[in-house]
Amino acid sequence: MMKLLIAVHHFFDQWNAPEWFSQRLGSDFPQLEIVHLPDYKRLDAEIPDAEIVIAWSIRPEQIKAARKLRWIHSPAAAVHQLMFPELAASDIVLTNAREVHGPVVAEHVMALIFALAKKIPGSVELQQKHVWGQQLLWDERPRVREVAGATVGLVGLGSIGRPVVKSAKALGMRVVAVREHPEKGTDGADVVFGPAQISEVFRQADYVVLAAPVTDSTKAIADAERLALMKPDACLINVGRGPLVDEAALAAALRARKIGGAALDVFPKEPLAADSPLWDLPNLLITPHTAALTDKLWERHYVLFSENLRRYLAGQPLLAVVDKRKGY
Fold first, then answer.
1. Domain span at residue 281?
2. Is 325 inside any structural domain?
3. 3-state SS, one letter per residue, for the chain
4. What pTM did the predictor assign?
5. pLDDT tens across 114-140, in order?
């Protein structure tokens, strides 16, 4: 009997697969042996005869021990933690959940754009102090602004970027984007640049949105040099992964008021330490990696994974396959 091993364990409850997930799989796919681990204590014992594994990460030595393993599914969009040589060189297929998270994260991007444009964090802070801050909010740079007519600059035009384009255009915004292969088309953006022209996105945008995977070429893609290209009132938004931003350079730009503001949902190390200087930076909005959260999360996971499982059992091509050479 083919074995499916679910080994998803996280300190945040919502990232853990609920019991109904494995129970429903067992009902829909009775031909499978399904093992749902509550933690990682039995992972080494269970993985050798598993053919399919759902997991955030697996160690290289576990890959070597997994003699029957043919498919790994990550319930995350980012898979850089799996890009070690043992997996990259193997015939094991890797899929991820980029299409599960992308549209939800895109909603969060639009919420952050509105929050920054309408100075919502400042209003909340003044409310807590019982201050009617109309004049204060207006006098502080950057000014409260309309989003219609503003330019969104997307670094990445994948599962997050595409729905951001759709929402931004519906609001009357201009969209410029950079993607690795601009020949793939604009996906509704006004202008699409190649990686060599990424500076144009930082130079033109009122809201630079980082929505790219972590690779060797995207680490610290928002560095001091590119932040210096941004308009004085422009804002940086990161919903990709923490390593995309040079945090020291961003902190310096915010302290010096070289850019209008920033919003970060992701960080190189999470949870963000209580003594991190980021908490107290001016004009920085922090959300605690909540961009992908939705009460429909695991139902969305189930739809994708069960469809892929049907395809796998039928010998058909899988959805959301990761190119292990590129890392996304």
1. 101-286
2. no
3. CEEEEEECCCCCHHHCCCHHHHHHHHHHCCCEEEEECCCCCCHHHHHHHCCEEEECCCCHHHHHHCCCCCEEECCCCCCHHHCCHHHHCCCCEEECCHHHHHHHHHHHHHHHHHHHHCCHHHHHHHHHCCCCCHHHHHHCCCCCCCCCCCEEEEECCCCCHHHHHHHHHHCCCEEEEECCCHHHCCCCCCEEECHHHHHHHHHHCCEEEECCCCCCCCCCCECHHHHCCCCCCCEEEECCCHHHECHHHHHHHHHCCCCCEEEECCCCCCCCCCCCHHHHCCCEEECCCCCCCCCCHHHHHHHHHHHHHHHHHCCCCCCCECCCCCCC
4. 0.96
5. 999 999 999 999 999 999 999 999 999
